[in-house]
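Problem 12. The chain below contains 262 residues. Write out its predicted structure in C-alpha cell notation.
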Amino acid sequence: MVTYDRDGPVAVIGIDRPEAKNAIDNETALALQEAWERFDGDDDAAVGVLTGDEEVFSAGADLKKMDLEDRDEGWLGFSRMEVSKPTIAAVEGHCVAGGLEMALWCDLRVAGESVVFGCFERRFGVPLVDGGTQRLPRIVGQGRALDMILTGRPVETPEAKEWGLANRVVGDGEALSAAIELGKTIAGFPQRTVRTDRAAVYDGLGQELAQGLKVEAWHGRRALETAEAGAERFAAGEGRGGEGIPDDRAASREDGESHEGA
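Solution.
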C-alpha cells in the first residue's frame, strides 16, 4: 500500500497500488500520513522522496471507492501537513488530479521525459482540495495555473520543465534514482541552514518584502553557529575554486558522509 525505505540519508516513501493506478483510498491516505510523520521524526533521514511506479505516479483520489475523509492533515493524508526537512517527488508516467497535488506538496519534482501532468479531475467535477489551487500558482504563476485548472489539459514534461513545474528532467525510468541522488546531494550540506533557509522561503511567501526580510533574518539567526563553523572551514582552505559545488554530473556523497553539519 505505502512503503518506507531508506537509502542512506534519503527516505523513500512509495505508493504501491498499481492495480488502481496508485490512486489514494482512505487506507492509503492514512498510511501516507503515518509515513510522512515517520520521516519527520526519523533523525537519520535528511530528505524524503515520494514516488509511485514507472507507469504512473498517482491518479489521485480513488473515485471508485470515494472513501476519503476531510482530516486536518488533508483528504490525501498529508497535503496540509508540514514537515521540517526537504522533500522531492520522483515522477513517472501520469501525475494527475490528486497525484499532481501530492507532487506539488513536495519542494522539488524530478520527472521522467514522458510524464504527463494535469488537473484531470476537471472532467468529473471533483474539486482541487489538496492544495492544488494554492501551490500550483505559486510554482508556475497564476495564468499557467488557471490554464491547467480550468481546462484540465495535459501538460507534458518539456512544457512542465519550461514552467518550473518539473525541476529536473531525466530519462524514463530514471526519476527515482535521480531523485535519490539529488536527495543525497542536499543531505550532504550542513542541515541546520538547509532547513532554516527552506523555512524562510515558506514563511515569507505572501509577505511584503520588509516583513519577508524580517522572517529571513529571524531564521538566519537560528543558524549562526553553523555559519561560523562553515566560515572556519572556508578559511582553512575548504571549497576554494568552487570545489564541492554540485552539478548534474557529480556523483552524490557516500552515505556515511551525508550528515556532516546536521
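Discussion. The first strand starts at residue 2 and ends at 7. Students who got a different answer should revisit the alignment rule from Section 12.3.
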